[in-house]
């Protein structure tokens, strides 16, 4: 019996070209052939196209959870950064890929990485009105509750409110004129966001009391900046 010959496309063109051509079976064959050679697979996934996107970033954009899973299992860092400081989670939000977001979250992706334009992944899904990605990010921002903890009815709601507060503050900073906040005020708000984001990242199953404490602490810092300013008498 004559062995089946590999596709000409599969063996002669860069993987990025095959991906852009939409040749799904050739992509599957190429990656499948490297599945048990982690070093070669990772090398292939990190090759870039003419737009400086890696092959793995393109597979995220194309919603290929199957190929993403192979790369992560081979040792690719789920939190690696590409051009402009974008992570895989940024691209999943930018292109409205809720299944990819769920996969990345379950594989310990950071929820609040900031790219060079100072955007978190969730900022992008909100900015481009990607409803499914936005909802998945809100879900990921909530505490992963065990059955025993589901009786704490207000825990996920409190966590989601805290998450929304941080996103609102980031969005306000990104959209504000340079003259709206002083350098010190901007630094104070950015530090408050970072503190809250790091706390949420490290405490995914925190008790309600601890969550309320950190949320109230951050609220005391950021909320005065969003209140209407009282006019000066006589002006």
From TrEMBL:
<dbReference type="InterPro" id="IPR036770">
    <property type="entry name" value="Ankyrin_rpt-contain_sf"/>
</dbReference>
<protein>
    <submittedName>
        <fullName>Uncharacterized protein</fullName>
    </submittedName>
</protein>
